[in-house]
Amino acid sequence: MILECFIKSLYKLRDTLPSESYVMVPLKICCLGLGSALCAFQWLQRNFRRKIPNESSPYLILREPTTEYRASNPKWLSEAAHNSRYDSSDTVSTNNNINEEEVSEVLSSALESMNQALTNTRLGSEACRDSFFCLDPAFTYLNHGSYGATFRVCMEAQSRLQRAMEGQPVKFMETSLVKGLNLASSAVARFVGASPSDLFPVTNATSAVNAVVSSVIHQYIEITQKQQQRDPPVKGLEAFGSRSNTLTPAYSIGGTLLHSITTLSRIVWRAAASALTYPWRAATCLLSVTRLDGMVRSTRGRGDTFVLMTNLTYPAVKSTIVKQASRAGLSVAVVQLGWRELTEPGLALEAVEKTVKELDGRILLAVLDHIISFPPIILPVTQMTAMCKKAGALVLIDGAHAVGQLPGLHVPSIGADFYTSNLHKWCCTPKGTAFLWCHKQHQSILDPPLTSHGFGLGPRAEFLWQGTADLTNWLAVPAALSTIQKLGFDAISEHNSRLVRWAAAMLVDCWRGPNQGVNNYVVGGQELGSRSPRSLRVIGGHAGRDVLLTACQYHDEAADETDEQARAGPPLLGGSGTDSSAACKASTGDSQADEVAGFMLAVQVPMLRDQPRPLSADYAVALHNVLRCNHKIEVPVAFYDGSLFVRISCQIYNTPQDYEHLASVIRAMMPT
Predict the structure, then answer these.
(1) What are the CA-CA distances from residue 133 to residues 401, 416, 506 (Å)?
(2) Per residue in 265-290, pLDDT tens?
(3) Which of 33, 329, 458, 585 is deepest in the core (most CB within 10 A)?
(4) Which residues contact 142 (CB under 8 A, 6 or more apart)?
(5) 148-161 as b/e, with b when 16 or more CB fall inside 10 Å?
(6) Is the CATH code 3.40.640 the one for domain 205-423?
(7) Is the pLDDT at 484 greater than 80, yes or no?
(8) Can you tell me the distance from the alpha carbon of 439 to that of 457, in angstroms, rounded to the nearest whole number?
(9) Where on the phi/psi map is residue 428: left (φ > 0), alpha (ψ -120 to 50), or beta?
(10) What does pTM read for this prediction?
């Protein structure tokens, strides 16, 4: 302490003397020598002094708790965390060909009971809804995107697993549960094209976002604090963290070299300590800390370091970012994506690119949506990720709606550092099942939402065990993946994408005002043909890419036996001789439009009777409640860009009559 105060006094004396003073050179040399001695003394003090002051002392001192503490982890968790057989590509498949006793038996039994439904049920029918789901038939359910709907087979499997857990709680929790979690997460990893060792089970995407944002910011704070301790204060600057501060070292001669040596020694020591304690984390720790340390040294201060998001980021994720950033003294950059950016080609990328260039080198973490919750736009995350990483930022993709909705999704190929998605939405798994994928380079800095058993065994063990909880929902995930595989993911994608596009065209056709004879619409708000003040907008699909909604053909497979010619034209209000077994086919004549563009679209609601002026979010909530309570229609209503929109979702249980019901109810509310 005395030596440190003496060195600070020398620095103050040096700053008061003129630069041409004859004592300046010896003083600089003295400062450099004493500074080096102080760094060496502090390092020796931290790493070689006895932890116990004397033999009679009643306490133990851990000056470097992370490296000195040895966690007492259960053997069964340690074995599960390091069992490499779960990483082999032929061990686990979505067919559930696994040898784990209880979990395997339960899943196999549940899947056998579903085989008959798989062979005798057609997608897009009431029979499909009743066979695969537990939805109330009295309700018209057009909001699969919010919470999903769980397969019956998963509910049956989870119920059996819960009974097995309560039959022998200790045996189940310490054997079947962790092994089943490993197998389930490995099956999910292969479903999204990832390595099982890089994918961790979490409760939901919001939980994963919290883990990543807090971990990255915590690592950043740790580096800046240690750097501040090593850098004497610069004359004339305010408290650390203000926008006017810099991290420039105050050494005039040799200061930069000394700072580099001490910083490098800290990084190397940290990696060496981790290597001694957790050998598998050494390389990744060095890479991650070096990258973050380089970012810290290139920025001006905490206030000039940013976490990036968009104005359409999911509200819960926005709250997470703002809370964590404000605690750390960081700033938040919000990319503005308006109607033009979402509907015109290239403008969304241009907005992100412009923001990244202006904040070049100062973005710590960029959080991007794969599919925006509302409006349901698919963003070009691969290109956006490349832009952010080129500027030195870490990238987290919030793909809450992506897995199960986007065909051919290969998470590692996106290029992000972190990726999360829910499974209970479009994979129809039990509620509370999601995953976090993390690039190997950053797993050393990743902390789970809770710390429990598994500490020190690596992120896989820490995420597998978050304390005592009922995780039978996760054990039932392979049953959902197997169901999707047997139904055919391509068949599901084609059915859902075509039906939702047909439904959007039908709704606009039903709700359009007088003198609007145009029957062609484009997702993205651009109408083909004459424009009208009362035109209705539809938005969804890929950002800046048109998905053409044209005249639909209504195709009834049961009618093919007697009549090969399908009934043409969009169905009129109330049907047109349709039945629940029919499926829709939208013929666009455009290869780009035929591309699967997601299972959600937003359709503008027309002017209604007694509608207030101007419109507001409160009226959207009121309309939503009217549809739910009075008409038993579950569909989200949103206030966006000065208008009301309904976001319609499509899943294999939806029928054309579901959307016709919505059309007729809204039509009845329109002024005559």
Answers:
(1) 19, 34, 26
(2) 555 565 666 556 555 555 555 555 55
(3) 458
(4) 633, 634, 635, 646, 648, 649, 654, 658, 659, 662
(5) bbbbbbbbbbbebb
(6) yes
(7) yes
(8) 17
(9) left
(10) 0.73
